[in-house]
Amino acid sequence: MLPTRSHYIHAAVITVIVLLFISLMKLFTLKVHYFDPFSSRLQDYEVTDILFSQLRDTARVKFVDEIIMVHVPKPDRAQMADLIDKISDKGARVIGVDVLFPGRKDSLGDARLAQSLRGRDNIVLAANLMQYDPATDSISGMITSDSLFALGSINAYTNFLASTNRTVRLFTPWLKTSGGVRQQAFATAIAGVYDPNLLHRMRRRGGRSERINYVGDFRSFIRKDIDEVLRADSPDYFRGRIVLIGYAHSTAVDAPLEDRYYTPLNRFYTGRSIPDMYGMTIHANIIKMIIDGNWIRELPKLLVYLITVVFTFLNVLLIQRIYHRLPDVFHGVTRLLQIAEAILLFLLVAICFTAFDVKLELGIALLAMLMVYDFVMIYENLIRKRIPYLKDLDYD
Fold first, then answer.
1. Which long-range contacts (C-beta less than 8 Å, at least 24 apart) are formed by 21-26?
2. Are 103 and 92 in contact (CB under 8 A)?
3. Positive or negative CA dihedral for 310, 315, 318, 323?
4. Which of 12, 176, 296, 355 is the most exposed place for a label (fewest CB within 10 A)?
5. What is the pLDDT of residue 163?
6. Domain chopping of the chain, boundaries
């Protein structure tokens, strides 16, 4: 027997109640999570984190050929000058220096570094965005290296949208500071020097914040130590490649935590305590994504909301029918149905993400599906009996 008009009305009412409850719950948790570190960790979690951290074949590390990372544990300016000279002379296409040089220290080292940077238009220097200014509703500006090094160089911010205790999932290609000055991200600037056409493609995407499609951790990239590079007689492997200079140590437990972030590749995607990736490795992942055009696509929010409403409504309609026609086995049948739906939803998200780089945001739909069972009973035994119109609206 097909559902009647009254079935649809009751189902619509329950759907509205469920989604309204979820909205209020999200609003409440948004307000209280600042006081609850555990709640904050749960909010900093997405289903796709499992796909990145648990379902990837770690034995088959994806190797990136275009990017080399040079690990510099304690940047000495004279040594950095020698390093830049050697890498540049060996034909590196772009050099990204993920090190800030504030102030002036020793005159000889400063002079040598300034000389190495001068006249080279393929070097990008790291910079830091200033704090957000509530008075102007904008970021005040950008902190660069000392003018001796920054003037005439490409300066780009290395900041991520997430703080150091949150998962880095997004990067912003461009950002305006006070006075409407447009600054570019470190990875954006490097990609633009590597191939200007890449910037044109990014601009066509609107310059919005992008989800990072991680290719792997530090093991996915060629990694050299500064001493190894300076000792080598003919490091020809730099020719035509992007070279990133900065801190690129392993993720050992005793490794320094400075400039180290949580990413979706973290094996402990909930309740974790140790950040898993250094900033320079994240930049390398972003650059690789830009070069390959391997963007993560997302459905429009309006479409996601529509899918959520329809999915919830159909679940209500189905569970409501089970409630009235199979009262003796309602609990067991409904729970089995929810488990099956949850598995199918996860498989759908996994297939779309891994095969097509499409991220389906079905978290609210999943939560609504899990809550429908309880709200059908609450509606039938409490709410409907107290509203005359709904009470008189029979299912037959």
1. 21/371, 21/375, 22/364, 22/367, 22/368, 22/371
2. no
3. negative
4. 355
5. 66
6. 5-43+298-392, 64-295
What's the CA angle centered on 58, arms 237 and 243, to 5 degrees?
25
**What's the pLDDT tens digit per position in 321-344?**
999 888 888 889 999 999 999 999
In this structure, how many other beta carbons lie within 10 angstroms of the beta carbon of residue 201? 13
Instruction: Give 12-16 contacts, CB < 8 A, sequence gap 24+.
Output: 12/313, 13/379, 13/390, 14/316, 14/320, 14/372, 14/375, 14/376, 14/379, 15/309, 15/312, 15/313, 15/316
Q: 203: how many CB neighbours lie within 10 A of its CB? A: 11
pTM for this prediction: 0.87
Q: Which tokens belong to 161?
A: 């949208």
Of all residues in the chain, what percent carry a pLDDT higher than 70?
A: 89
